[in-house]
Amino acid sequence: MGRQEFSDLTGIPKNTLIRLEQGKNAPSGKVLMQVTKAFYKYTLWLMTDQTDEVCGQVSPEIEKARGTLKKTGTDTN
User: What does the alpha-carbon distance between residue 59 and residue 65 come to, in Å, rounded to a whole number?
Assistant: First the structure.
């Protein structure tokens, strides 16, 4: 996903995203709230670097792995 699409999805201005990516600013509570509202299933991972798959709280890496497993036919779900 590109910056513009992420900006459109979260409502975070593109320039704010650039400053965050460059390390010029730390994300504010408002920015974190906007991200977690747009990507609810990643909330726990974003805030704590942990996941709880039973509760549906995953990370982008878990989602990518699930997609790969489904393509190869090795997914058990």
Answer: 10
Residue pLDDT, tens place only, 24-52 = 999 999 999 999 999 999 999 989 999 99
Domain containing 66: what range?
A: 39-77
User: Domains in the chain: how many in total?
Assistant: 2
CA-to-CA distance for 8 and 1, rounded, in angstroms?
11
Structure tokens at 7: 């900006």
3-state secondary structure of 63: helix
22 shares its domain with 45: no
Does pTM top 0.90 for this prediction?
no
